[in-house]
Amino acid sequence: MRLTTRYITKNILMSALFVLLILLAVIWLTQSLRFLELIVNSNAPVSLFMKMIALSLPRFPEIIIPVALVAAVIFSYNRMMMDSEIVVMRSAGISPRRLAVPALVVAGLSVFVMLLFSAWLSPAARAEMQDLRQVIRAEFSTFLLKEGVFNPVGD
Q1: Angle formed at CA 118 by CA 46 and CA 73, multiple of 5 degrees
Q2: How many angstroms separate the CA atoms of 119 and 117, rounded?
């Protein structure tokens, strides 16, 4: 791999990782607020809360990775263009096709990561979450019943 390709790939990967972590933190916060009611209103342990959040997170990278990748590619190439790095690389004889290779390499890596999440991690986490919901319904059913409210029977 050429030096310029490694440089651009590193920039894209760092930017994508940063955007991915920010978006995952926002989703983690919204998920934790959603499950916080379980901890506050019932005597459920904090470990159950953490397990529920951990099991709900694997479904989100399937959505977030493409968004983070697009943002990272646009940000990285725009920054290099504003710093005139693209002009210097083009003047040095690097073709536009060679400049696009790092984005394609990172896109290929992200496809494999998304495949890992969508084919293995997300279904396993979803099945575990369904089992955990059944346990919660059995052990903490008083949390699900609210005074003065009609409670639906079934799912």
Answers
A1: 100
A2: 6
Within 8 A by CB and 6+ apart from 90, the residues are 96, 99
For residues 23 and 64, the answer to whether their CB atoms sit within 8 Å is yes
What are the pLDDT digits (tens) for 141-155? 666 666 777 766 665
Single pTM value for the model? 0.78
Write out the two tokens for 146: 């609210």
Distance CA 124, CA 146 (A): 32
Residue from 22, 53, 26, 25 nearest 37 by CA: 53
Phi, psi of 140 (to 5 degrees): -120, 45
pLDDT at 84 over 80: yes
pLDDT at 1 over 80: no
